[in-house]
Structure formats: structure tokens, C-alpha cells
Design a protein that fits this description.
about 220 residues; mainly alpha; two-stranded antiparallel ribbon; globular
Length: about 220
């Protein structure tokens, strides 16, 4: 299956995100507080579409054995905390919007954050991580890192993360098409980073939207 063109499209999205971050940093440098060992974004809960999950997993397997083993141990703790969060959401009977809000406010350490407070896959980090320190728009709502200097009520350029997520969804959907799968709605599933590094990913055995029940498999609002 020849899908290199789809990964080139993903690389373009990464470059667009990096350019957007750089532009806002140049214009509002006093507000962007990102620096080495700042780990606020490393405790946010979010999921990855298939195309980004496959990209991250490929580079994870290239790490040294000891580094991977340490990350997998951290993944076990991540899973336990995510399971507890999912149960909390279910017991509270939240609406989809309420569940998204709770997920967005929860703080769980990413398995890729090592004990030196550094990302072990920083050059290959997801797009969400790349733009965390600048204003972004998600589901029509502006959001920004709490550590930044951006002030509420003031107008700033906003990175449209919804649009990027839609592109990631469409690329993942095309991966399903290339693989001959008919359940294209499964491309809307999101995988936690823990799931990505723990589980061998294969397009043919990727979970179906109808039977995905793992707490480390999330759902997106992508159309």
C-alpha cells in the first residue's frame, strides 16, 4: 500500500503549525512563555488521529530500549489515571461538551515526558503540542496555555486547531480507503499517546468506531 503522499501531507500540516507558532512568537514574544523544561502542555489530555499516531509510533520504536521501557512504565500510570477520569465522566453523566471540557482541564503526565522533564520525541511531537503555547481555536472556543501572557478580552491571532484536526481526520480516512476498509467512520477515533506507544498499530486491525471500548481510545468531533 503506497501512502507516502499522505505522510507528505501530514508533514505539510506540521510545517504550517510551526510557522504559525513562529509568527505569533515574533509578534507577541512577551506573551509566549514556552521554554525548556516547561511541561504544562505535557500534562494535557488529548488523542491522536491514525495518521499522527502512526507517525509517532514509528519514531518511538527507533528509541533506545531503556528509553522505551521507561516510557512504557509511565504509560501504565497514564492508563490508570485516564481510566479513573473516564469513570468520573461516566458517573457524572456529562454531555459531550461537558466531557470535552473535563478532558481539557485534567492534568495527566504524558508517557513521553522523562524524569529530566524533557520530551523523548520532541522533534516528532504532535501538532497539538507544537501550538499549545499560542492562542488556538477548538470547537469554536479560543483557548490558550495558562502559563502564557496572553490576556483575556484582547484580540490575538488564533491558530485554528479545528481546521488542522479536520485535515488529520481526512488523511486518516484516506489511509482507511487505501487499506480497503469500508468503516471509514472509524477514522474519527482518537488514540491516547499511551495506546500509541503500547500497541502495534495496523490499519487493517485498527479498532472500529462501533466496538472501541478501551479507555485509551477517545472519540473526536471531526465531521
Amino acid at each position: 500500500m503506497k501512502v507516502n503522499h499522505l505522510y507528505k501531507c501530514y508533514d505539510y500540516l506540521v510545517e504550517a503549525a510551526d510557522r504559525a507558532f513562529q509568527k505569533i512568537e515574533e509578534e507577541y514574544g512577551e506573551c509566549v512563555k514556552c521554554e525548556i523544561h516547561c511541561t504544562d502542555c505535557c500534562h494535557a489530555v488529548f488523542g491522536l488521529f491514525l495518521i499522527e499516531a502512526l507517525h509517532l509510533q514509528k519514531h518511538f520504536h527507533r528509541l533506545a530500549d531503556e528509553e522505551r521501557k521507561a516510557a512504557l512504565l509511565r504509560a501504565e500510570q497514564f492508563d490508570q489515571q485516564l481510566q479513573a477520569l473516564q469513570e468520573k465522566i461516566e458517573k457524572a453523566n456529562h454531555s459531550p461538551e461537558g466531557a470535552d471540557s473535563l478532558l481539557g482541564s485534567e492534568r495527566i503526565r504524558c508517557p513521553l515526558l522523562n524524569d529530566e522533564m524533557e520530551c523523548i520525541l520532541y522533534p516528532y511531537r504532535p501538532i497539538t503540542c507544537r501550538v499549545y503555547g499560542i492562542p488556538s481555536s477548538i470547537q469554536g472556543r479560543a483557548r490558550v496555555c495558562g502559563q502564557s501572557g496572553f490576556q483575556a478580552g484582547r484580540p490575538y491571532p488564533t491558530f485554528k486547531l479545528d481546521e488542522i484536526n479536520r485535515e488529520l481526520y481526512l488523511l486518516s480516512r484516506k489511509l482507511f480507503q487505501e487499506a480497503g476498509r469500508s468503516d471509514l467512520d472509524s477514522a474519527s477515533l482518537l488514540l491516547s499517546i499511551s495506546e500509541v506507544i503500547r500497541t502495534p498499530l495496523d490499519i487493517h486491525t485498527f479498532p472500529r468506531a462501533s466496538d472501541a471500548s478501551s479507555p485509551t481510545v477517545l472519540r473526536s468531533n471531526a465531521p
